Amino acid sequence: QVQLVESGGGLVQPGGSLRLSCEASGFILDQYAIGWFRQVSGKEREGVSCISSGVATTYYDDSVKGRFTISRDNAKNTVYLQMNNLKPEDTGVYYCARTSLPLRLLGLWVMPTQYDYWGQGTQVTVSS
Questions:
Q1: What is the DSSP string of 65-113?
Q2: I need a surface site. Which of 4, 67, 84, 88 has the fewest CB within 10 A?
Q3: What gap in Å lies between CA 115 and CA 100, rounded to an integer?
Q4: How much is the pLDDT for 104?
Q5: Cβ(5)–Cβ(97) under 8 Å?
Q6: How do residues 2-53 score in pLDDT, each as one tens digit?
Q7: Within a 10 A sphere around the Cβ of 69, how many other Cβ atoms?
Q8: DSSP labels for 3-38?
Q9: Using CA atoms, how far apart are residues 106 and 83, in angstroms rounded to an integer?
Q10: Which residue, 98, 84, 91, is CA-closest to 34?
């Protein structure tokens, strides 16, 4: 069955770094785009980044551009989110999710409804 498992979250001071991993199973990772979302209690889930299938085109929310980097290793069935210069407002539960959106429609990547499978989430807390 399709599964996505996030790891790598934790507590970090402002300015610090974390690398999140999203390990996929039950499907061929390279055939799907993968998105990262974060959610703070009481707020809607928001898109952070997305990487397309194939050519691995990347997308970022403006709030993380220049600080976060998304990448994929299809041989390891894993998508990564490298997060540098973390800020308190980056705090939240981070989820990875799978979408079947083709490259020409990946402008819709920020919409959670476009994703069919989600991981369980990993907590990231940025605090001094």
A1: TTTEEEEEEGGGTEEEEEE-S--GGG-EEEEEEEE---GGGGGGTT-GG
A2: 88
A3: 7
A4: 87
A5: no
A6: 999 999 999 999 999 999 999 999 999 999 999 999 999 889 999 999 999 9
A7: 16
A8: EEEEE--EEE-TT--EEEEEEEESS-GGGSEEEEEE
A9: 22
A10: 98
For the record, the structure tokens of 12 come out as 């970090």
Calculate the alpha carbon distances from 60 to 27, 48, 76, 125 in Å. Answer: 24, 6, 23, 20
Could you report the per-residue pLDDT of 48-57, keeping only the tens digit for each?
999 999 888 9
Q: Is the alpha carbon torsion for 28, 32, 38, 42 positive or negative?
A: negative
Tokens (6 digits) for 20: 């999140």
128 and 14 Cβ atoms separated by less than 8 Å: yes
**Digit-coded pLDDT (tens) for 52-89:** 998 889 999 999 999 999 999 999 999 999 999 999 99
Which one-letter DSSP state was computed for residue 45?
Answer: -
